[in-house]
Amino acid sequence: MKQRNIGGILSVGEIGLGCMGMSEFYGPTDDSQSLATLERAFELGVTHYDTADMYGAGHNESLLSRFLAGKRDRVAVATKFGIVRRPGDYARRIDTSAAYVAQACDASLKRLGVETIDLYYAHRVNPDTPVEETVGAMADLVKAGKVRALGLSEVSAATLRRAHAVHPIAAVQSEYSLWTRDVEAAVLPACRELGVSLVAYAPLGRGMLTGTVTSREQLAENDFRRVAPRFADGNLDRNMELVERVKALAAQRGCTAGQIALAWLLAQGPKILPIPGTKRIKYLEENVAAAAVTLTDAEVKALGDALPPGAAAGERYTAEGMKGVNV
Fold first, then answer.
1. What is the tens place of the pLDDT at every residue in 208-246?
2. Which of 49, 55, 100, 283 is flagged as catalytic?
3. Which of 128, 131, 143, 219 is deepest in the core (most CB within 10 A)?
């Protein structure tokens, strides 16, 4: 797999793997299935694995530790802190205080079974805690050798600039896809100016851009998309119409809609790194194969014109969830 750089510090395969769904949010989980998918990802050249301490209340990091054994020096591990939840409860608070930064990092290191975290993100920022305090504490982790590179998730361009002035930020992780292009307005330009990589989560629109989600009823009862606005009645039908435009080009190119969507993201620049999530080998292999799909400039433009910023019906999250983005 071709390599891409994160903040001038890490070199990883251009398509990574988001591991969240292996622990919760997207229906039933199966550790054996997930571990097999992780091993297959490694075989295919995936070297960028993304997790967080809140995924499964620590379960995801512990699961990843089982996969990392024996290959730690050949992969990059990214994890996050800041969202504090009780197991099985979506209610949450954001803690990005200096004291919590140190506490959370030590807990993640223990669960992951590693001595150093390659990329450590503030999962969300608490506006009541100055980002300078948070990043200052994260910088101390770098000095201590516990973390290699720093990241922020779902921040505004202004917050990124303030943070970057304290310590170089290697990556901003935000939702970015043909379906969600908010970052193009201010965050992505700021990243490019500062030399910060953009790690794109939900690059397949939480499955919507694959063309396989056609109703909420097909989703498991504990799948969070059942309450996500873009999958609500009315919005879902309108969004499925948008996906037909992606499927049409995919049919012409002889690949899947999901592969076209990932290829479009890769074409947005060398510092864009998509991390499609899956717990199944079938979809993993399909996603990784997107790296072989090269779009022409005309195709990139046609896709962008077909799904312009703001085209998707409905917000990304519930009203409560939206409070934590672009802060």
1. 999 888 888 888 888 888 889 999 988 999 999 999 999
2. 55
3. 131
Q: Examine residue 262 and state whether it is found in any structural domain, yes or no.
A: yes
The rounded distance, in Å, linking the Cα atoms of 178 and 173 is: 16
Residues with Cβ within 8 Å of 165's Cβ and at least 6 positions away in sequence, in order, are 132
Residue 24, in any domain of the structure: yes
Q: How many domains does the chain have?
A: 1
pTM for this entry: 0.95
Any domain includes 327: no
Find the domain containing 33 and state its range: 3-322
d(CA 25, CA 18): 13
Q: Is residue 13 part of a domain?
A: yes
Tokens coding 80: 């996050």
| 121 a catalytic residue | no
Indicate which CATH number applies to the domain containing 242. 3.20.20.100
Nearest C-alpha neighbor of 76 from the set 139, 172, 9: 9
Residues 55-72 have pLDDT tens digits of: 999 999 999 999 999 999
Query: Which among 82, 125, 128 has a CA at the least distance from the CA of 105?
Result: 82
Q: Which of 64, 66, 72 is nearest to 20 (CA)?
A: 64
Rounded distance between C-alpha atoms, residue 209 and residue 188, angstroms: 21
* Separation of alpha carbons 117 and 120, rounded Å: 6
**Pair 119, 151: CB distance under 8 Å:** yes
- Give the three-state DSSP class for 9: coil
